[in-house]
Amino acid sequence: MSAYQDDLNTITRLRDAQGGKWDAINPEYAARMKAQNRFKTGLDIARYTAGIMRQDMADYDADTSQHTQSLGCWHGFIGQQKMIAIKRHHGTTKKRYLYLSGWMIAALRSEFGPLPDQSMHEKTSVPALIEELYTFLRQADARELGHLFHELDDARAKGDDITVRAVQKRIDNYETHVVPIIADIDAGFGNEEATYLLAKRMIEAGACCIQLENQVSDVKQCGHQDGKVTVPHEDFLAKINAVRYAFLELGVDDGVIVARTDSLGAGLTQKLPVSKEPGDLAAQYNSFLYTTPIDSIDDVREGDSVVKLDGELRKPLRLANGLYRFRSGTGEDRVVLDCITSLQNGADLLWIETEKPHVGQIASMVDRIREVVPDAKLVYNNSPSFNWTLNFRQQVFDAWQAEGKDVSGYDRDQLMSAEYDATELAKLADEWTRNFQRDAAREAGIFHHLITLPTYHTAALSTDELAKGYFGEEGMLAYVAGVQRKEIRSGLACVKHQDMAGSNIGDDHKEYFSGAGALKAGGKDNTMNQFG
């Protein structure tokens, strides 16, 4: 028996037990409303989606072609339309997630207005966006199921039993738009207690996966900006523990933690951890510092710090702002240590922020990590901060040059130029770009590929194109030809924007509640009927 039929039978028995007081209640309508509201709370969503992620991680371990993907979404409507598009074009939401980008919250969702990605925005805006995204995804379910219920009613009215059974099967096997969200908590917005409190709010809103980075929270920078400052491992592990406690307290026992390291591009630390014995984590962290030897007391100035490294007294270089500098060339070693330490202390997935999309560079670090933690897996930022065209053209150029191929017809520094678009080099670079995610999943341990802020750019591009034409010679044709006609011919459900916004759901409810006397919006004079 299907869940829908089971609910229908249960509600029928409940109504019949009321001695006539509930005779106005139609059990089928109630069962439909229940089906349209499968997830009652954010915690229901978090538990459901955590199970999906854990299964997907196991699938990837067995077959690296089973990697997952997501796009960053800054509004519930954007997330909803993304998942509707995925179901329409690909038939399933499997292996597709949403990404909640701290960068986009800062740039688009702060009450202060546009902000840089430096944890300056309100921390409450993070769980608020999670809740908003899931509200829109649940509404997508309600809308689509509502259409199926109307198909069922029409088939019943025509006595078409074959269609009735087919539609009922689609209802019984309905795939939700609700998918996992990987949610960016930045550096935790404060100390470990602040991290725990915010993580709880995020989980309660529906997050099954929280991404945490090892920067100092009060001077946090975007991973693609300069001036990044990391914290000692002990500080970062305390915040990983805080997130895990939040998951366990709320009953999301298989919640997922992504540990992000910015050490590849971070040359500074705010403080020196206290080493308790030779070779411990603090000692390993301090071993990467830029230091100078101390030969006499005269080498130590007022206020200087002194550390003992490998039996020798040394003075760490401290900048005018009080920060300490790491030795040049230690970034990759620090990344490897960060990743191993995080996985050994409660993290589930890794995020290595790199300065370019290069499979070989990523794989070189992951291979070292997997020598210690064989099932290490990455979440990787396919960042819009990379110039993908230039990067891959230069990678092809370098590969050809290493092979001894003649590259004299190309200027490596100018490969972004449109004059190269039709060349053999550019075509191969595009092929490498097309295969990047598959290649990196296979060769560099990347389980999940995401783009942090693609919909920031798509919104800007589409708005620019519309504004150019509408306020120019094209006038209304810019909207008709550039937007509406494309929506109609592409079969986008959003062309019926009243329906997408919930008009038909509301009409159904009015009929449920008021019967034949309901005043509905979807009659013959509704202009939405022009779209068929």
Description:
With 532 residues, this protein is of the alpha/beta class. It folds into 3 domains: 1-27; 37-270 and 330-406 and 438-461, Phosphoenolpyruvate-binding domains (TIM Barrel, Alpha-Beta Barrel), CATH 3.20.20.60; 472-515, no CATH class. It contains 18 helices and 14 strands. The protein has helices spanning 3-16, 27-35, 42-62, 76-90, 102-108, 125-157, 161-172, 192-205, 233-249, 281-286, 331-344, 359-370, 388-402, 424-443, 454-470, 476-490, 497-500, 503-514; strands at residues 68-72, 96-100, 181-184, 209-213, 229-230, 256-261, 268-269, 291-293, 307-309, 312-316, 324-325, 349-352, 378-381, 446-451. An 8-stranded parallel sheet has the order 12-6-4-3-2-1-14-13. Strands 5-7-11 form a 3-stranded mixed sheet, with no helix packed on it. The protein has a 3-stranded antiparallel sheet with strand order 8-10-9, with no helix packed on it. Strand 9 (307-309) and strand 10 form a beta hairpin. The longest helix has 33 residues, at 125-157. The protein starts with a helix and ends in an 18-residue tail after the last helix. Residues 222-226 have low confidence and may be disordered. Its cofactor is Mg(2+). One of its GO terms (molecular function) is metal ion binding. It catalyses: D-threo-isocitrate = glyoxylate + succinate.
